[in-house]
């Protein structure tokens, strides 16, 4: 029983961390119809920045700075690598995204020398707490709560504010949005800023729980968060969050099965098998909108 | 008469093909001016260029004395030039009320009065205030598109084919509203293939053929013109 609770807790926590990355994919896709392949690597760079900043600054300064710098990175990537291609075919932008992804990975290799880097201990997150007789790290408890609070704030922003309304309008129709006086590029920048901020927060929660960061550390969580976004219906924020929680929990359960069964090594393959099954039955994902708009 | 819009030898090309080949016309304050012409004559290109969506290859667009040629749509909208785009282009995922509010995107003042005015023109929209724009009928969407543009308090309202794809009875209603809006003090530039309707409401009209203006006159003059009757009004003209 205690074991089950600890597996579930950890699944919810991993799911929450995927959710923070998945929102970045789904927001950008919703507006630009672009799979931002660099997003997972932005997440990894955020992790590395957390290490380097913590070495010179107290945690109370370094963590907010990680989020700010991640936002700047996301903003800069959009301006430099995607904006000039606004009129280009979507495939070109995607290739630009892949290019940025490798640039970030290679730069990380250059800076770290390819050595796994140890994430600093963040006192508040790494401390343990007793839940139903199980010793659990605080981060496991805090993650889902923080994720839900952030998702709530984000949906309020999108549904109730002027910039949120502009985001929804731009996601449907660039040209008509421009005729309303909306600056498309500003709205797109806001989207990247939000996505990157969430990835920055996600990196703090995620890497606290992992022994080390390598330049490839963004690839797998990024890919899984992307799967979660597709799974939930790409473009839908609730979809991305629920998809991320499902994948996080499912993955942790598989990893937690008795080792004599020898299935834990397949946990990643399972994630993708799950995606394929869902897409066979629901090609739009759980909450994706069917592409039929009345004109 | 005070000139609101002045177009001087406007040229628009797409990939080397000239769609608009040196058009000049003007709209005075308080007028309804219409551009009529066949499909592909260059009407929409002209309007899209005035609104800033398309950059002209030559010529000049002057709005209230300011040169707005090739300016960004945001800047053009901010000067008080709103467009009702072809095909209505309602935001299907926004509610009716949000569609109206987004028409006033660049305004920071109180909108309640304007929303009431628009609902006064279109009581049907008020009933559907919380419905998603995409669930409205074609006629209702056209009302919403017009209402949305009015929310920007336009000094000049441009309409691209408001009758397109609507039932005749609905078209009648839309044109009555255009006249009502005009009486309430808005200057209108209207593009139409439905020349009969357009010429009946217009103070002045221009006929566009192959990217050039071939005729101009008051609405009544062109309604009675033999050539216009043959080419654009059919036998019933």
Provide an overview of this structure.
Chain A has helices at 2-32, 39-56, 59-82, 90-112, 123-126, 138-160, 162-172, 174-179, 184-208, 219-232, 237-256, 267-281; strands at 117-118, 128-131, 134-137, 212-213. With 295 residues, chain A is mainly α. Chain A has a domain at 20-216. In chain A, strand 2 and strand 3 (134-137) form a beta hairpin. Chain A is globular and about 60 Å long. The N and C termini of chain A lie far apart (54 Å). Chain B has one domain (3-233): Rossmann fold (3-Layer(aba) Sandwich), CATH 3.40.50.300. In chain B, strand 4 and strand 5 (66-67) form a beta hairpin. Chain B starts with a strand and ends with a helix. In chain B, 46% of the residues are buried. By secondary structure, chain B is α/β, with parallel strands linked by helices. Chain B contains 10 helices and 10 strands. The A-B interface holds A 162, 165-166, 168-169, 171-173, 175-176, 178-183, 293-295 and B 51-53, 73-74, 77-78, 82-83, 85, 87-89, 91-94, 98, 101-103, 105-106, 134-135, 148, 152.
> CATH H level of chain B: which superfamily?
P-loop containing nucleotide triphosphate hydrolases
- Major β-sheet profile of chain B: 6 strands, mixed
Tell me the radius of gyration of chain B.
17 Å
Please state the CA-atom Rg of chain A, rounded to the nearest Å. 19 Å
Class inferred from helices and paired strands of chain B = alpha/beta
CATH topology of chain B: Rossmann fold
Question: Count of DSSP E strands of chain A?
Answer: 4
Note the quaternary state here: heterodimer
Query: For the largest interface in this structure, which chains are involved and how many residues does each contribute?
Result: A-B, 19 and 27 residues
H/E element order of chain B: EEEHEEHEHHHHEHEHEEHH
- CATH-level-2 architecture of chain B: 3-Layer(aba) Sandwich
Structural class of chain A: mainly alpha
Terminal-residue CA separation of chain B: 31 Å
């Amino acid at each position: 029983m205690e074991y089950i609770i600890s597996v579930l807790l950890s699944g919810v926590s991993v799911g929450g961390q995927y959710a923070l990355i998945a929102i970045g994919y789904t927001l950008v896709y919703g507006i630009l119809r672009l799979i931002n392949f660099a997003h997972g690597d932005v997440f990894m760079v955020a992790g590395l920045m957390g290490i380097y900043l913590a070495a010179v600054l107290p945690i109370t300064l370094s963590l907010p700075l990680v989020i700010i710098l991640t936002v700047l990175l996301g903003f800069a990537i959009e301006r430099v690598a995607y904006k000039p291609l606004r009129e280009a075919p979507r495939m070109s932008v995607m290739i630009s995204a892949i290019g940025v992804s490798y640039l970030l990975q290679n730069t990380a290799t250059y800076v770290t020398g390819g050595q796994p880097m140890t994430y600093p201990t963040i006192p508040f997150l790494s401390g343990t707490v007793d839940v139903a007789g199980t010793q659990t790290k605080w981060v496991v408890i805090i993650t889902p709560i923080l994720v839900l609070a952030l998702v709530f704030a984000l949906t309020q922003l999108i549904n109730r504010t002027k910039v949120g309304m502009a985001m929804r309008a731009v996601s449907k129709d660039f040209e008509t949005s421009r005729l309303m006086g909306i600056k498309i590029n500003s709205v797109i920048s806001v989207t990247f800023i939000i996505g990157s901020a969430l990835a920055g927060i996600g990196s703090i929660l995620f890497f606290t729980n992992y022994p080390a960061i390598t330049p490839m550390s963004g690839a797998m969580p990024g890919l899984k968060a992307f799967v979660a976004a597709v799974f939930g219906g790409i473009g839908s924020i609730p979809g991305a969050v629920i998809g991320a929680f499902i994948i996080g929990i499912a993955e942790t359960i598989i990893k937690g099965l008795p080792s004599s069964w020898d299935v834990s090594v397949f946990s990643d393959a399972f994630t993708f098998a799950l995606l394929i099954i869902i897409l066979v039955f629901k090609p739009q994902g759980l909450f994706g909108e069917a592409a039929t708009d009345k004109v | 008469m005070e000139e609101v819009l002045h177009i001087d030898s406007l040229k628009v090309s797409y990939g080397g093909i000239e769609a608009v080949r040196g058009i000049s016309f003007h709209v005075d304050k308080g007028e309804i001016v219409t551009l009529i012409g066949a499909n592909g004559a260059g009407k929409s290109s002209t309007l899209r260029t005035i609104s800033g969506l398309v950059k002209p290859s030559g010529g000049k667009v002057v709005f209230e004395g300011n040169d707005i040629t090739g300016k960004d749509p945001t800047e053009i909208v901010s000067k008080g030039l709103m467009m009702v785009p072809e095909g209505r282009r309602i935001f299907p995922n926004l509610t009716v009320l949000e569609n109206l509010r987004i028409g006033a995107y660049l305004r920071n003042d109180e909108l309640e009065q304007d929303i009431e005015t628009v609902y006064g023109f279109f009581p049907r929209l008020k009933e559907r205030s919380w419905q998603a724009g995409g669930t409205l009928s074609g006629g209702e969407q056209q009302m919403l598109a017009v209402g949305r543009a009015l929310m920007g308090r336009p000094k000049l309202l441009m309409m691209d084919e408001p009758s397109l794809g609507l039932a005749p009875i609905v078209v009648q209603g839309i044109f009555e509203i255009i006249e009502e809006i005009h009486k309430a003090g808005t200057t209108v530039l209207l593009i139409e293939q439905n020349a009969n309707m357009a010429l009946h409401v217009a103070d002045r009209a221009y006929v566009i053929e192959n990217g050039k203006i071939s005729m101009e006159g008051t609405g009544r003059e062109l309604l009675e013109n033999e050539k216009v009757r043959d080419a654009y009004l059919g036998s019933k003209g």
